[in-house]
Description:
The structure holds 2 protein chains of 2 kinds. Chain A is about 75% helix and about 0% strand. Chain A is mainly α. The longest helix of chain A is centred in the N-terminal third of the chain and has 36 residues, at about 10-45. Chain A starts with 8 loop residues before the first helix and ends in a 6-residue tail after the last helix. By secondary structure, chain B is α/β, with parallel strands linked by helices. Chain B has a domain at about 5-95 and about 170-255: 3-Layer(aba) Sandwich (Rossmann fold), CATH 3.40.50. Chain B has 10 helices and 10 strands. Chain B is globular, with a radius of gyration of 18 Å. The interface of A and B includes residues 173, 178 and 291 of A. Bound molecules: adenosine-5'-triphosphate and magnesium ion. Adenosine-5'-triphosphate binds near residues 43 and 45 of chain B.
Amino acid sequence: xxxxxxxxxxxxxxxRVVQGLVYLAFALAVVPLVSVLWLVISNGLARFDMExxxxxxxxxxxxxxxxxxxxxxxxxxxxxxxxxxxxxxxxLLTAIYLVEYGNGGRLSRSISFFVDVMxxxxxxxAGLFVFAFWILFLGFQFSGWAGALALAILMMPxxxxxxxxxxxxxxTDLREASYALGVPKWRTIVKVVLPTAFTGIVTGVMLAVxxxxxxxxxxxxxxxxxxxxxxxxxxxxxxxxxLFVFDQAARPNDTAVDRAWTGALTLxxxxxxxxxxxxxxxxxxxxxxxx
Amino acid sequence: xxxxxxxxxxxxxxxxxxxxxxxxxxxxxRSVTAFIGPSGCGKSTFLRTLNRMHEVIPGARVEGxxxxxxxxxxxxxxxxxxxxxxxxxxxxxPNPFPTMSIYExxxxxxxxxxxxxxxxxxxxxxxxxxxxxxxxxxxxxxLNKPGAGLSGGxxxxxxxxxxxxxxxxxxxxxxxxxxxxxxxxxxxxxxMAKLKDQYxxxxxxxxxxxxxxxxxxxxxxxxxxQGKPGKVVEMDETSRMFTNPTEKATEDYITGRFG
Lengths: 291, 259
Ligand SMILES: Nc1ncnc2c1ncn2[C@@H]1O[C@H](COP(=O)(O)OP(=O)(O)OP(=O)(O)O)[C@@H](O)[C@H]1O
Ligand SMILES: [Mg+2]
């Protein structure tokens, strides 16, 4: 015969200890995050002013304290936007193929394999590839577009993997409900499956954007470098915020180092802002809001 | 509206596994036909072959004929999508579209198939379908709330409304009441009695009383033995089946002396 048991003291103690360990692990994980944020904010606020956001480094002398990152901000925004325009449609369509049409066939298995391989490609290699192919072999000049190509290569596997995961989470029941209404497969995917997975896909895309927005190495070899404003991503060298930080931080003057900190702060703010926008879109589209 | 279904020597497979074998039957229009039988004997499988939903599962295939008013649904020239528009289906678990409101759920079949429909016409169809599914009074003040926010029974009736909104000829229901309370069950049974004036209805159920209450004809499915494909043991008027079945197996199953 079994009896109703009370929670023993040893279990209570174990519970407390494990709970403590979990909190400790959490604190350990948060320490670097907070300290990085704190460093960037405290050092970056000094130069975070209107001039920094609206001026380039054109004609700024080595010891001048003013100057700004407008050219780099524009460059980063354009490069990341172009990279997203390339990689999101391709990545999403690949994920749709893998989940809805692949059926674990040979093609889908080899695509999966190559996506995994791409995930492991170091960012320098993506930059080198675009440099060798687009600039040396095809003979185009350095441009924001070339940088976007390199960033797109880095974004693609993240987009595919996260979208794939989200699409697989959509219950088969929903697809069947749609088929049973006589809706063709492609309309089912567009009107039922994608909207259901929408929030998750947006989050995945944002993660991919955040990942590439801070890449320096591939930009060095593709967008090259400039101190002046170039609004046209298809012609001539551009700048990017990571490049700006890299360049300024390497200069000997304190004024330049200050600009580097502010550049880093701006980059973090841009990624956070993009995240916020994505969350707003997801919230606005979510069914729970009950329009 | 409402058509007759004739099935002749139909086999259904999942990959190499034969789930049902040599099923032949006639399903009459403007009536309720019930499928009963032990778990795993292929009732759902057979139901899904009637509107070509079976082949949606990877590796699944069908051999044999299903005639809808004389036309073979499995002829090579037939578009499966159009078959499903004519033969609607309600699933065992309620599955409203989570991203859509109650209104949009009911409108989904028409919107997704025919595109734009004038608002006034659509309002009429949604109201008629919800009334047809005995749900209108409960939801008329919150048509724009998410369909997933309804109770299980309400969700199931929402799915029925969604299925009848496209005006099918035949309505297939796979254990539509298995997750419902007695009152919702009663509401759906009343609904079937009402709908059979217009539709051919086929229902799978594990509830003998329900089969006896709602159906005009009943088919008893069974496995010859474990691991063998399912077969139709007997099919007859429901009143005959439940009082005076021909086969011993049917009587045993109905009276609960099974296995
Ligand atoms: N997706 C599937 N893939 C492979 N085999 C399946 C699949 N679905 C069903 N089967 C098999 O087909 C046979 C019939 O299953 P089916 O779902 O038609 O039974 P059922 O009579 O509806 O049972 P229940 O009353 O429990 O719903 C079973 O042996 C089952 O294991
Ligand atoms: Mg079943």
